[in-house]
From TrEMBL:
Origin: domain of life: Bacteria
InterPro entries assigned: Aminotrans_IV (IPR001544), Aminotrans_IV_CS (IPR018300), Aminotransferase-like (IPR036038), B_amino_transI (IPR005785), BCAT-like_C (IPR043132), BCAT-like_N (IPR043131), Class-IV_PLP-Dep_Aminotrnsfr (IPR050571)
EC assignment: 2.6.1.42
Pfam families, alphabetized: Aminotran_4 (PF01063)
Cofactor: pyridoxal 5'-phosphate
UniProt name for this protein: Branched-chain-amino-acid aminotransferase
Source species taxonomy: Bacteria, Pseudomonadati, Planctomycetota, Planctomycetia, Planctomycetales
Amino acid sequence: ADQATQKVYLNGQLVDKQQAVVSVYDHGLLYGDGVFEGIRVYSGKVFRHEDHIDRLYESAKAIRLEIPIDKSKMLAAVNETVAANGIVDGYVRLVITRGSGTLGLDIRRTSDPQVIIIADTISLYPEELYENGLRIITASTIRNHPSALSPRIKSLNYLNNIMAKIEGTDADSLEALMLNHKGEVAECTGDNIFIVKNGVLKTPPTDAGILEGVTRNVAMELAREAGIEVVEMTLLRHDIYIADECFLTGTAAEVIPVVSLDGREIGDGKPGPVTQKLRQRFQEYVRE
Ligand code: PMP
């Protein structure tokens, strides 16, 4: 949507983009204290809408943040914001902050959680990378320990991911692989990871310390429907080095091939057949 007419949902109202502001005392800003979602819109329909809203409320519950409206109101608010901005194919960013408080950490001294919905267009990676695949590195920054801040919570505190992302971009790697505290493969900074080995699709389980991606679930469902065996299992970096194929999934990235990790070519260094088939199937599915 263009600058002048873009409407942002803020606490029950659609306001002009310029009027969509929150307090500098908001704990979302001061401490990354809040939760969010990123959701795609395909052909005017919000993709896997309930799944995203369910995850949002679960994230909020985990941080003891009470979202001031119920799920049905939230679903309606997202639809309303998408429609008001004339978004047919785009992206929704839903943000719930803790609200304003004192400069201290006590959540009991905060009030008015802010409910923010932005509907916009999106372009993440150039088309060329979907055809030729990403070349990525492993970051030395490990994924948050699940007992410190669970990666299952989609919180506004994304510094762990940003630290790894910096390592990636410094190395001209547009994504970066993150290992967990046990040295196992977790996920990338904003995407889940899959490999194909001997025809079997493999991805790290939830307890590897990952965000349970909505796209990850869709990819597993579509693969199973296509008769591909899918297993959630512990993976080491070595498994990726010797994989036949590798790809990432995420709301923004969709399904994108990875053709090298840490300078090791994966398979023959080109996007593999299972990856290409799943990507194609994904593109059909989102518009069904
Ligand atoms: N992992 C992380 C850390 C992410 O930020 C995202 C993007 N939300 C994903 C995985 C992919 O999740 P989804 O498919 O739900 O977008």
